Amino acid sequence: MGIVYKGEDPVIHRAVAIKTLAPQYQGPEHHELQERFKHEAQAAGRLNHPNIINVYEYGEDAGTAYLATEFVDGKTLSEIEDTDQVFSPREVAEIVLNVLNALAYAHQNGVVHRDIKPSNIMLSSSGEVKIADFGIARIESSELTQMGTVMGTPGYMSPEQLLGEQVDQRSDLFSTGVLLYELLIRKPAFRGTNIASTAFQVVHTELQPISEIDPNISDVIDSVISKALAKKPDDRYADAQAFAADLSACLPALSSTASAQSKLVSNDATVIQTPPSHLVSPEKSPETPASPPQSNQRKSSKGIWLGLIAIAAIGGGGFWGKKMLDSGEPKPVRQQVTSPTVKPQTQDLASAAETVDAQTEQPGDTIQDCPYCPQLIVVPSGSFLKGSPDSELGRLSNEGPQHQVDINYQFAVSKFEISKLEYSIFVSDSNYQSNGCWVYDGEWIERPDHGWQKPGFEQDDTHPATCISWDDAKAYINWLTQKTGHDYRLLSAAEWEFLARTGSDNPSCTVANLADQTAAQAYPGWTVHSCTDGFVNTAPTSAFQANELGIYGLSGNVFEWVEDCWNQTYQGAPTDGSAWSDGDCRQRVLKGGSWFSQPNFVRYAFRNHLNSNTRASTLGFRIARTL
Predict the structure, then answer these.
(1) What CATH class is the domain 374-626?
(2) Burial, 340: exposed, middle or buried (Cβ in 10 Å; 0-12, 13-18, 19+)?
(3) Domain 2-72+282-314 -> CATH class
């Protein structure tokens, strides 16, 4: 989200790097990003250390904010990792020792970086290690960072940072441990298939010792990495100095030559002893942008713009927003958490930015409030006929009278049913307990030893969480709301039916996992659909095509709990899209059918009802978020 230019201070003829926000992020609607940009100057500007890129000046010129920093002739570690260059184990340790040296200084000065990763560590042509990008750093007594905004890159964030808890210097030490591990094995330490699975690995997975991956690397490093990567902050090094002391003690045992294993991993790459300048010199300047934007061509009051030459365009640098367009590319994320030190009525920068986001979210936009949060999609307002007409084949009396519902608001809904992985993160973090589930084995039997982890058939983490009661779903929602500070909820029955009917015909095996010919082979005698979807029980939440709104699996797979209390008919039902809060609230409504459902029970008008504490291997849920 930024552009970096190489420039020269015309007074003292010193090369500088000038960082600006890209033009599309200059408007008032990106006020918080601009404040983050200024925040980087405040964080790094108070630090003066040989292993930290120095900030010389922050200013604004013709409406464009800029940051003038030390110019480093070199490459980031991530850029070097993308080449065939290989560091020896000893060189890796020496690089990380420089990082720890800089972090010790920053921590002593009240700054926690919060985004240590290869792309934020530069290696100069002379071999100097430099930490860059303090855009999301936490500064003691900083109002901006007390607003509860937690940002970072999931694969390098500490467990407490991912879970929205308070972070201190030990979070940086965890990230540095991840960096050390990655540089030694030349692969990311935590490699999930998506953001949620990566976050789950960080919080729960213990990494294989380095010496087991590469026996040529001394096992003395294993205990150091294990302590740095402890899941609980209290089990880690207390400070960077202690980490550095133990790592320094490993140096004599670490080879100064890359091992055969490392060479194999990197396709017989050249080993770097002392990095020569040609290996880390900057790449040629791109053709565009050849100069700063036209509006910035004139010299500012201090002449900082004079003689600028574009050297690189960068995307990220910590200036990440919560709202993401569904481009198919990996998306940075931001998590909002509630800080007890902030008065609710305070109109600060973070809350102002939230207001702007709410105003600018458009139908089709994708939102993900934290790395382990479900992906949401913004859906439009609209009107529809709820229920079924008297003439509909298979109609039940509780589906009428048919009536118009007007939903005059936008909201966001999870693109997929809540997955087993997403639910497991909640259970692990909250220690939530649930026992017993109705499972099908030729007949329905309640088994106390079954549940969401053991529903009576094989599942993987991509399948929907099942054996979920309405009470369980509400517990998940309350947890997610507390973690993010956003208003999560179940859909109302009206919202669910509106989403299902919008742009979709009645469900078939092309869009839903239903009781089909595959199930008939496993369970002879079932009444099934004439089509074949390939699944006997649950399927991955993304296995079937989305509807025109971009929502997957509204019908089939698992019944979805909604907020409404049960009523025998629609007489007196709300007409504004809200949930029906009157009636028998011990019984809650389910919509959409499941892998077990015969044709009549997956019609959009069909609604089931069960006690709110009922768990069965056909029951799951999806969530909504108020905008």
Answers:
(1) alpha beta
(2) exposed
(3) alpha beta
Per the CB < 8 A criterion, the answer to whether 623 and 477 are in contact is yes
3-state class (DSSP) for residue 355: helix
Give me the helix-helix angle, 420-430 and 470-484, nearest 10°: 70
DSSP 521-556: HHSTT----SS--S-SS---TTSS---TTS---SSB
What confidence score (pLDDT) does residue 22 get? 62
Query: Which residues are designated catalytic?
Result: 115
Q: Is 68 helix (H, G, I), strand (E, B) or coil?
A: strand
Q: What is the dihedral of CA 560, 563, 565, 568, to 10 degrees?
A: -50
Cβ atoms of 224 and 253 within 8 Å: the answer is: no
- Binned at pLDDT 50, 70 and 90, residue 298 comes out as very low
Q: Are 312 and 282 in contact (CB under 8 A)?
A: yes
Return the DSSP state at 52.
Answer: B
Alpha helices in 231-305 (DSSP H): 240-250, 260-265, 277-280
CA distance 381 to 397: 28
CATH architecture for the domain at 74-279: Orthogonal Bundle (1.10)
- DSSP state, residue 571: T
440: closest CA among 206, 616, 256? Answer: 616
Domain locations in the chain?
2-72+282-314, 74-279, 374-626
User: One-letter amino acid identity for 329?
Assistant: E
Could you tell me the pTM of the whole model?
Answer: 0.58
| Three-class DSSP labels, 92-129 | HHHHHHHHHHHHHHHHHCCEECCCCCHHHEEEECCCCE
Among candidates 158, 154, 99, 86, which has minimal Cα distance to 132?
Answer: 99
Q: Which residue has the tokens 């990655």?
A: 182
Express each pLDDT in 266-286 by its tens digit. Answer: 333 323 333 322 223 333 333
Contact 475, 625 (CB under 8 A): no
